[in-house]
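@channel sequence for tomorrow's demo:
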Amino acid sequence: MKTKIFQTILQVLACAAAIVLIFAVDAFISPAAADVHTAAAILFLIVGLLFAKTEALTTTQKLLAINLPLVGFLCVFAGVTDPITPIFSLTGIIFSAIGLLIRRKTVNYFKVSSMVVGGIIYAYIFGFVALPRLTANNKMTVTDTASPSFELVTLSNETLSSNDLKDQVVVLNFWATWCSNCVQEMPQFNTFAANYKGNDRVKILAVTMDAEGETLEKAKAYMNKKGYDIPLAFDKNMKTYQTLKLEDIPATVVIDKRGHVRMIHTGFGSQEDYSALLDEQVQSLLNE
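C-alpha cells (generated this afternoon):
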C-alpha cells in the first residue's frame, strides 16, 4: 500500500515538473504563445496518462492513436510548411509519451527525465531559433502618399496629433509586449532611436496598441525592464493602426516633414539590419 502511494506521489510530481518546466521555457522564449503551447502540452500529458492503461495497444500504437489526428488536422488546416505544424505535433508526441511513461507500474524516471529535457531542448530550438525565422514575413513598402490625420496618447496622458508632428520626420513603430516578433525587433529599434535622441527634427515613438489586454503601463514596465530608452505612445482602440491601414505587427511607419507616408515596414527578419534600414531612410528624408 505504501509503495503504491509513494508511486502515485512520484507520478504526480513528475507530471507537475513537466508542466512547470514547459511553462517556464515557453514564458521565457515566447511569452505571447506561452499559454496556448503550455495548454497543449498539459492536454497531451493528460491524454497520455488516460491511454496508458489501454493494454490492447503497444506504446507505439498509443502514440500513433493519440497524435495522428492532431498531425493530420494541422497539415490540412495549417499546412505542412506552417511552423505551427511541427511545433505542436512535437508537443503532442513528447508530452503524450511522458504521460504514457509516467503511468506505468514500474516508472523509469530516467526515461521520463530524458523526455522532459528533450522537450525543453525542442522548445528552445523551435521557439527561440526556428520559429522567429520561419514566421518572419518582413515586407517594406516605399510610397509617397499624404498621411491621414491620427491621434496617440502619451505617457503623460496627453493627446498627440499628427498636426503636432509637422515639419518633423516621424517614425512610428507599432508593437506589443505579447508579440514575439516585436520583442525580437525591439533591440534594433532601440539602437536606431538612440542615434536621434535629442534631435528635434526627428520624432520617434514606440506605439503600443489597445489589443490583447495591452496597456501603456505594461509597455512602460517592459521597456524599463529591458533598459530601452524609446518614447512611448498608446493607440487607443487601434484607431491609428486602422487609419494607416496596417495589417500586421511589428509595423513601422515613416512620415516625412510634409506629412507624407514614405515607408511602411511590417514583420521582422532576424537576418535583416533593421536599424540601418531605418537610419538610411530617415537620413534621406532629413536631406530633402
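heads up for whoever presents: DSSP finds nine helices and eight strands in the chain.
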